[in-house]
Amino acid sequence: MTVLAVSDLTKRYRRGGKPFAAVEAVSFEIGQAQTLALAGPSGSGKSTIARLVLRLLEPDAGRIEFEGADFLALSGAALRARRAKLQMVFQDPLAAFNPRATVARVLDDPLRIHGIASHTERPHRIAALLERVGLDAGLAQRAIHEISGGQRQRVAIARAIATRPSLIVLDEAVSALDVSVRGRILELLLDLQSQERIAYLFISHDLGVIRAVAHRVVILDAGRIVESGDARAVIADPQSAIGKALVAATPRLNRNRP
Amino acid sequence: MNRLRRFFRTPEAIAGANTLALLIVMALAAPLLFPGDPQAIAGPALLPPFQDWSLPLGTDRLGRDVLAELFHGARTSLAVGLAAAAAALLIGAVVGTLAGFAGGLIDEALMRITDAFQTVPSFLLALAFVSIVGPSLGVVVAAIALGAWTGPARVARAEVLSIRERDYVAGARVIGMQPMEIAFREVLPNALPPVLALSSVIVAAAILTEAALSFLGLGDPNRVTWGGMIAEGRAVLRTAPFLSIVPGIALVLTVLGVYLAGEGVVESSAVRRSLS
Amino acid sequence: MTTLLSIRDLAVRYRGDGLAALKGISLDVEAGERLAIIGESGSGKSTLALVIAGLLAWGAKIDGCIDWFLPTDADARGSKDRQASAINSSTPRLGRDIGFIFQDPSSSLDPVMPVGRQIAEVARAHLGIGWQDAFAIAKSLLERVRLPDPDAILRAYPHQLSGGQRQRVAIAAAIAAGPKLLIADEATSALDTIVQAEIVALIRRLVAEDGMTLLFISHDIALAATLADRIAVLRHGELIDLGETNQILDAPRHVYTRALLDAHLGLDAAPLLDRRGAQS
């Protein structure tokens, strides 16, 4: 079943008086419980696509179908209600939260806004969410700036799954994390995907990470799709110039150990 | 606690805080030390200071106790200064946040109104407002706030424009938060620090404006004000200059105290920011 | 090989939180080697870079010693009399003896000064030459860091350049006075993979051409391994592993080093999706 279908998505800006396309005629689909990765150098339009799909930016042309319905046709309260099913995790977990917030408040907001739990029920829901992402429920009363980067990203994931979404956009969600933390966060994401049937739009510049978790990959250059297909097949044998350059530039550990 | 210790590290902060503390004590103690009407006649007219120890600062043309007037005047100055500054900051923060967050036509409209208020000298605005509505404490506060909210509005708007682009605002939209809740719960509290940094300047200006209005006879006639005292003394400036000088000194010290304390707050929070 | 600097029992404590950022670090850096310092956030790797560069003067308490063995001018002229000249414990000068490349070039470059002038300023300040010569040096440096059209870039402001170009300019400024030691502190972390590989190749070439010693500070052990002769691993402010790159990769002594290597998601590793089996 297709969760998200994007066709001919286009976003143009004016830079120094000249129009330029940040995203040009991009089309892709993501199925239930599937991970589609967007890869490409900086400026290739990866993050713009994420923001277009989330309606944080409005496209100049193209269609976005979310769970079979026209997502671009929604506005106001109808759009806000629909957002429950389409969530996001940002790169920098510190910037992604109000600097004055506590963990409890961050998780309370989506539950309150979408009427998922009553006022008295919410503390239990928050504790359950924290445990779901491998955190201690006692963390709820801590301020966001007091917890570690890895914990923050887990809180971000807890917020994203609070409304039981069918798609989560992960915009470089593990790039700012230490490698040892990164592995565990990726494991958590895969767990959630297999248990809750969540689809991921996984944006990363790191082909190693993409290869580890994505089913399919789309490689972008200057706002256009230059290559797409099975993640492992594309990375093993890239056809486009940018695909080849990305693979060649990825650092390798030439370990001689068996 | 730490913040307080840092605040009291700079000499200007200590001087400013002490001056303000003295002023607040004066204002609070006025009804206790000088019960009854400060505008009542207490002795012979135009008694110079340090002659009669029951009237240490002497009396004015009508024989009113200058020291009692000074204490009661502190109440008016502080009340008007703080109330007007609070009102100006509140209006400014709300208008600036709405303009910066909404953008487009709402921003245009609100900022042109801000321009309009800014092009009229704030004192003239206050003067006109009080002349039309009539002098009373509330009207004086409103008149001063009317000319003082534009600065905070501009600062708040600039801050909101940068905060609006942060990830956590996008995050709030993604979880379906309503725009008004985003503006006033997520954005406004984080835009406040630079706006509050203006408060000492605004309080000081409000105290001076209040004194100027009173000097022109547009203060609340039922209250003693330092500006009114200076105006009273003007007629006998040559023979009894102390009548103008004493409230003048009080005014200078108050404004200086507010400035210095405000400077101390800004500095201590700057140290805090550079440490973190 | 001769030693360029020798660190003994170095400890750094930041005022304020009172936590030790570094403790008991002892490390020799050989002249001409490429040493990578690896660690995760909070490991103290950037603190170590800053201490060596002498940039930690304020707000930090430093114990232990760092001895420098900078070749003096006599050395440079080929004097045989090593006893008299080799040991020069006077503190090195940042810019002159040490070049420093920061993670974020947009914060290390002055936004309102043309980049050519920023590079020329370093050369002028440390080499005792006039502006005209300094600009000539700046232009040749821009060629050396492979920036297209150096004449145009000399007059450009930082915001007119891309992130990769700005980092190249920052590198040019760092090496303008011909430092003996080049410190790159997460110099490629803010860049995408392709630009990162180009900058690493550039640093490798410049270090080889000028015979500089390189300290490459990074969180990415795979990236560091492509460049370094030796790798030092820091964790919680302590130096826990140090060895030749091959030895660290093939036979890490410390379990943490092994964990770092295992956590690397390379293009040859088994994907996590598979390791979990076809459970979904």
Can you give me a brief rundown of this structure?
The complex is a heterotrimer of chains A (258), B (276) and C (280). Chain B is mainly alpha-helical and 276 residues long. In chain B, 75% of the residues lie in helices and 0% in strands.
Give unreliable regions of chain A as ranges. none
Order of helical and strand elements of chain C: EEEHEHHEHHHHHEHEHEEHHH
Q: Could you list the spans of chain C in which at least 5 consecutive residues all have pLDDT below 50? A: 74-89
Number of helices of chain C: 13
Largest sheet of chain C: 6 strands, mixed
The shape of chain A is globular
- Percent of residues in helices of chain C comes to 25-40%
Mean pLDDT of chain A: 93
The share of residues in extended strands of chain A comes to 25-35%
Radius of gyration of chain C using CA atoms only: 20 Å
**Major β-sheet profile of chain A:** 6 strands, mixed
CATH H-level name of the domain at 1-75 and 84-92 and 227-267 in chain C... which superfamily? P-loop containing nucleotide triphosphate hydrolases
**Percent of residues in helices of chain A:** 25-40%
Q: What features would you describe in this structure?
A:
The complex is a heterotrimer of chains A (258), B (276) and C (280). Chain A is of the alpha/beta class and 258 residues long. In chain A, 35% of the residues lie in helices and 26% in strands. The longest helix of chain A has 18 residues, at 179-196. With 276 residues, chain B is mainly α. Chain B has one domain (25-43, 54-275): MetI-like fold, CATH 1.10.3720.10. Chain C has 13 helices and nine strands. In chain C, the strands form two sheets. A six-stranded mixed β-sheet of chain C has the order 5-6-7-3-8-9. In chain C, helix 5 runs parallel beside helix 8. Mean pLDDT of chain C is 86; it is low at 74-89. Classes of the chains: A alpha/beta (258), B mainly alpha (276), C alpha/beta (280). Chains A and C meet through helix 6, helix 7 and helix 9 of A and helix 9, helix 10, helix 11 and helix 12 of C.
